[in-house]
Amino acid sequence: MKDGIGDGYTRKDHSSVSNQLFASYAQVQEIRSLASVIGEDELTAIDRTYIEFGHQFEIHFINQGSDINRSILETLDLGWDLLSILPKNELNRIDDDVLNEHYSHERAIERFNLVTKPIIKGLKGSESR
Fold first, then answer.
1. Cα-only R_g, the chain
2. 29: domain range?
3. CATH number of 17's domain
C-alpha cells in the first residue's frame, strides 16, 4: 500500500493520517479493555475522548455503507476530522507542519455534533501542541 500513496499519488499526508488512525484506534481497543475491568466511570477524560473517537471512527469510517462513494481526498479529510476529536498532543505520528495544516478540533466538534458532550467541550482548550 505504501508504494501508491503520498505526494504525487494521493496526498502528502496520506501515510501519516493512515498510521495515526490505526494507532489511535488501537488505543481505543486498549481503553475499552481497561473499561471492562475498572468500569467506564473510572476512565480519565482523555480515555473517554478516545472512546468517543472510536465510536465516531466505527460509524463513519469502518462501518461505511456500500452506498457511500467517497473520493480519497474526502476520505483523508474525514480521517482528519476524526483525528481532530482527540487533543492535538495525542497525535504523535504526524509531523507538526502537517498537523498544523489539517487539524481542527472545532470542525470535528461541528461535523460529529459533539458540542453537547461535556467531555469533548472540556478539551476545546487542549489544541496547543
1. 15
2. 2-126
3. 1.10.1140
- The number of folded domains in the chain is 1
In angstroms, what CA-CA distances link 8 with 5, 17, 76?
Answer: 8, 16, 15
Instruction: Quickly tell me which residue has 476520505 as its cell.
Output: 75
Q: What is the largest CA-CA distance in the chain?
A: 47
Among residues 64, 61, 79, the alpha carbon closest in space to that of 20 is found at 79
pTM: 0.85
**pLDDT tens digit string along 8-61?**
789 999 999 999 999 999 999 999 999 999 999 999 999 999 999 999 999 999
Start-to-end Cα distance in the chain = 30
DSSP string over the chain: -GGG-STTTS-TTHHHHHHHHHHHHHHHHHHHHHHHHH-GGGS-HHHHHHHHHHHHHIIIIIT--TT----HHHHHHHHHHHHTTS-GGG-TTS-HHHHHHH--HHHHHHHTT-TT-HHHHTTGGG---
